[in-house]
Amino acid sequence: MNASLELLLATPFIGGLLAFIGGKVHRWIRNLIAIIFSFATAFEIIGYYNVTIKGIVWGKLFGSDLILQTNPITWLFLFIVTSASFLIVLFSIDDMRKEEDELKLDAYYMYLLFVEGAMVGIVLAGDLITFFMFWEIMSWTSYFLIIHGGKRSMAAGYKYIIMSVIGAYAMFLAMAMLYAKAHSLVYTDVANVLLHSSPAFVIWTIVLLAIGFFVKAAVMPLHTWLPDAHSEAPSPVSPLLSGVLIKMGAYGLFVVLYGLISVKLAGSLMPSVFSTPLLLYIIQWLAALSIVLATFLAIMQEDAKRLLAYSSISQIGYVVLGIATGTSLGVAGGLFHALNHAIFKGLLFLVVGAVIYRTGTRNLSELGGLIKKMPFSFVALLLGIIALAGVPPLNGFVSKWMIYEALLQKKEVFLLIMAFVGSTGAFLYVYRLVHSIFLGQLPKKYENVKDVPILMQIPIWVLALLTIVLGIMPGLAMNVIVKGMAFFGFKPIAYNLFGFPQGTAMGALTTINISAGLAIAFVVAWILFILFPKSRKVSQYDNYAAGQVVTEDLKYNYSYGFYMSFSRVIKPILKWSIERVYNYWVEAAKIFGDYYMRRIYTGNLETYNAYIVIVITLAAAFVLLGGKIW
Amino acid sequence: MDRLTEEQAKTIANMLRKRSLWMIHYCTGCGAIELPPTMTSRYDMSRFGLAPFVTPRQSDILLVTGYVNIKTLRRIITVYEQMLDPKYVIGFGSCPINGGVYWDSYSVIKRLDRYIPVDLYIAGCMPRPEAVITAFRTLMDMIDQGKADGYKRYKRNLAYYKENQRKVLG
Amino acid sequence: MIYYIGSLLLIAVGLYAVLVKSNLIKIIIGLNFISSGVNLLIISVGYINNGTAPIFSRLGLNPNTMVDPIPQALTLTAIVIDASELALAVAFVVLLYRHYKTLDIKKIRSLKW
Amino acid sequence: MVGGAHPILLIAVPLFFVFLIVFFSSFFKGIVKYLPIIAFGINLIVIYQLIPEVLGKGMVISTTAGFKPPLAIDIVVDRLSLILAAIGSVLGFLVAIYNVSYIDEEPQERYYALFTLLVTGIIWMVVTGDIFNLFVAFEVTSIAAFGLVGFHRDQGAVEAGFKYLVMGSIGGGMLLVGIIMLYAATGTLNMVDLAQKSVHLTFGQKFLAYSMIFIGLGIEGALFPLNAWLPDAHPAAPSSVSAILSGIMTTAAIYALYRLTNLMFDYKQIYTILLFFGLLTLIFGEVSAYFQQDIKRMLAYSTIGQTGLFFFAFALDSANGFQGSIMQIINHSVSKALLFLVTGGMILRIGSRKIEDFAGLGRKMKFSSFFLAIGAFSLMGLPPFFGFWSKLKIIFAALQNPNFFMVASVVIILLMSVVEGAYFFKLLQNMYFGKPAENLQISEAPAGILISFTILGLILIFISVYPTPIINLTHQVANDLMSKSYINIALRLGGL
Amino acid sequence: MVIDKIFFTIITPIFAFAVGLSFMMIKLKVSARIERRYGPPIIQPIYNILKLLLKEENISHGVIFSLGPVIALAGSILTVLFIPYAGIKLFTGSGDLIALMYIMVIGSLGMALGAGESANPNASIGISRALTLMLGYDLPFVIIIISVVLYYHTTNLADIVAAQAHGHWTLWSLPLSAIVGFVVAYGALGEHPFDIITAPHEVATGPMVEYGGKHLGFLVINHAFHIYIEIALFVDLFLGGATNVLWFYVKMFAVFFIMMLFDEVYPRFKIDDAVRFFWKWPTIVALISLIIVLVK
Asked: Which chain A residue's Cα is nearest to D474?
């Protein structure tokens, strides 16, 4: 409980190493160690609930202190990281059992815990060096996690790591520029320096840092790694990536925008649009574009995990959109949505993982009708998609509602429209998910499928419960968020356990009334329903198909190209692919590099000698010109 | 509700049923020709609460218009079995009665009655809309009096019907 | 002065040979040209017109008229190094000929980029 | 001198062992392969003894032949030399162990003699305080290297060796020309003396000499465009030699360039030119490495890239730049040597240098793959490995005075780091998760190889997780370079 | 007060159902007259519903299949509670217009889930179309919602209604929004030309294909609610709500009557054409209206 921050940071790393070593002894020792250490990390953060520690120096590098710190926002993200990791470790125990190679499994748990440790480090960091260091560690450890997924995951992982590295180096550049100015990278020092810097410098800093965060958070023009990586990664890793890892980008953005640069400062540096500093407004637009376009792309997907991956891009768009509003309500909404997204996206990926575990496919058109075989998974998935679509009474609705209200208050109507459309679009793809996996025709080969083992169900149920609890009692999360935001200088927003009383915002929300109303209405409707004659259960093959007798061997259900008509509508948009642009440039660079390299290292000794002579001649010319180079 | 006896409840239910008859029509050949005038403005069968519907789950009447051959019989039986009780079958025109002009065809079912219980036949080739409407009115009266019990007969004599169906369909 | 020019010319000729000639032997000769040029350069640095050997073999010798002994020592070292290099080079040429059946450097291009 | 720590032993002992090897080879051949281990073991002891003194006083000088400097050739070990000499000795020692399992081709005694000579020459080059002695060391190194590159005597090795020889000879000649120019202008060969006397020379004079020296050392130090021999020679040589060549030989040449530039040619213009050379080397090295199919060739190009990086850092001409440069040298030497040693073991087992043939080795050769990954990570500069700290330092140093050119350079460096990441991750991915060839039956590398790269890997891990002493040391070194304390301390200690 | 609230909570859904049912009745008659038919008896919908509920046999494809209509009805009842009518605002304080938009969706979700479990391809196609159409009309819908909200500076529906008192209807102040709102409400009702979802001749009533008996009865009831919700929302947003029930009913009827006329004369859009339609003219007009509000 009273573990020091260093211990908190070290626990997952030690656990990872021990798990790796323990795996040499027996696999259950390894599993146990992984469970214990991930639980220990989650347990250790309890003591930091609502604790603010300004900073602990844990090292010194190049004259800059390396600092660990914590505050309620940190705690929120720590909570996301540690609890999600713990649940994912639990889920992995059974899910990864099909992997025969024990060495790979040892490495898997090690990297899993390392990623957790790195994310804890990112969140706890009190200076940019620590932040960046753990950021990089997170990148490569998660890369190794992703490529556990088999052959196709390798290309995905490669794309992921390259883009991560590019993003990280953009951050690195910004960091170095800040270091040159501040000679220290502690947040407070950096903030001080930025306060007195030229606008151009501040803007460059934000832009460069934002590139790094956007790659990780997969905001639209930099998202191309995500669909591949998230869908090809092993089932338990996808929730970690989607639920937690991309939140680090959002966290970084939050820290930079409000920890290093205050909105007031940003506002004084650049023109404002809709009372938002221009740069933030651009960030908001990128986020909004991510929301809409990723939603449209998710609608088109045929692969369950790919669909969820695109949905992650879209949902992280809400988070970034909220964080970039700069108002208390919006930022709180963004942070809350980060938490909620971790919960419901983790839940969805886990359920899909469970389905893959049982059926071995994630192709939506091959699945169907599993509700009869995996009813618990169905209910969990149902809760997940309701939360994702932002439909009351679950948690996704509350955070989205806050973001909408914040945007409305700032009159950022175009962004708001996009956010709304994204939410409606989410409805399309989540229905696709539940329909194609759980509803519809049950293929004959899945006759003997049953629900997943209990160890895999526990994480699913915990998350499913959280969607309900936070949906009805958003005040639980708002406690932490509002306190933490006060730490960053935001005005507090009025809230209570069940939402937002009237008079504080444009509108009001009392979640308990909605959920209670729904429950009562449901009970009333249900009572009405059972008054009338009971229904007779019929087989799914007793189905109206214009008189045709439907048989088992016939695939009669409609699950491929579910939104074909919609794709016809948005075909003009789909023609544009940022990925193709990237590929084009990468190919061009490769061809260029190849062409010129071949002409430099020709293998001909005479050429090589000519280089030497050229250098001699240049030197001589230089001397003759009197030592002037310009 | 509990005050009402079962008999009374049934009476009320039948009264409602006869006022709202939704039909799914099985049309082959010329059978479909006489239905549109029946439905549209001139004869307007919706006056009697009749309405055409498209799925057997929602329909009360199966209207078999025109001949039924071996191939289509299977569909008719499927559709009939998918309908929800109470359900009624109307044989429309002479074909379902005795094969009509196809009386000597090898593939046409001569008597629909042998395979599914027909509540009412409308004779004629083809029957005029007036006849059709009269038939519906007759059916309504039958329902009111509880005479239209084809679905019950089907259940009672399931073995008989199945045997006949098997003979034809194999 | 003439020695400097001569040595530089020798180096230039050597470079030219290395650069232009495609025969391995000629390249080696070019290398030797370079080293000879360098050696000559070293010697000429310490050379004094009408100087004496830097040995007090008899009395009355003015140290200022003695040639500098250090370049000579250097040259000796350099010559030794050149000799060993030459030996190695020739050995390589023999091996190259064994592998490629040619002495044309342009054809010896199995290793490229 | 004092405390029994004689820097001269660093050269004398291995040279003696070279003769011993040749001597023993004729009648007691079995012992030959162990002699280099002893030689460099002794060297390590000498270095260990030198450490307190060098760190304390900043320099240890030992003169030869009974003369006093500047006439005598003196051996000067300051902090920078010590770092490089230590790396050289450690690598020499480890590679000597490696050789025991690795070299089975005849004539072994020549290999061992040349190998010992090569490492000796490198250490010599690093610790010498005399500019002509530097040339001699340079040539000793070169000739040993020519021979070793051609050691396999197959088609590629001979060709690479010959090309290297031609370019190296030209380089040697140019270096000598430069040295002679300096001598002609100042009349001395002692570096400290030269540094003092050359103040009076004009920039033009100095630059002429410098350009000659630069060409000579640049060829050996693999600076673009003088580095064309390197990608041929490194793959052709036995992996043990590649480790030395890549790990420390180019570095030693660069060291010499650092030393001379710092002592005598401390001009803004020269540093500016060097910046460009560094950047170009970096770009061409890394980009070429990306396209390689041959793993050793890839590593060789990567060496060029790394050289460019630390040369760039040096050319920044600031304390931070020097520090970053030296940290990067340490990182490069250790990691690249590690990579070459590991790949050597792997190539020995699978008999191919193609990257695609490395598929699935992560399962078969666990230790090798692990250390390969560690080395690659450190080279890429991923935390928490040492390369991260050095790269951090270099970038911070480069942006100390951010102007457009510097920012652009940093962008290039970072882009090249991305390229570096691209090819290393390609390799690692293939190695760990690639599908191995059918019935690939291979075992872990032989004991000698395993021991040597394990020790090196552990060293790398150690300095990665505990970089503070090295950071402090390099900080001192950088300050030494900035304040030119080489001259002052040498004067105080009688190095002149 | 509390009793008051409970009373109205009970009475509101019944009122809504009655209104919706009355519209259904009227519609049958009116459309018959437009087609020069006599038309069914005026209480034909009641016969239909009761007949469906009293079917002797019901079939079910599974739990969710049965729950579908129940959830749909529950969602509709809940939504009704959030819409203020005739000065009665029950739950309006606990969820504003934005919340309402998403509460409205619950019912559709239930319906879609239930229909999905029937495994009927027609049902799936129908849902696919329904959701696509929803995305289609959602775009202009949110735009007009935003413009109205911005115009009145509140998201509270009751406040919006209050602000329109004394004839200051949104219809007069934002005519363009009102027009689009009408189109959208119309599209949401799924009448011609937007009835591609159920298109009986194509996909056999789409989502409802497997529903019969009491399930279908519930869906018909739900449809009555649906009519009420869409039109009441339109009346509240654009026609100033009303202070008494009668006036509210008259306004709703007026809106519904115009809708009926449209319904009679239009053929059917293809689904992608419907979406294109909604994303073209209504969206443009709505945007213009929004910009007008913003500039003001």
From this structure: A62
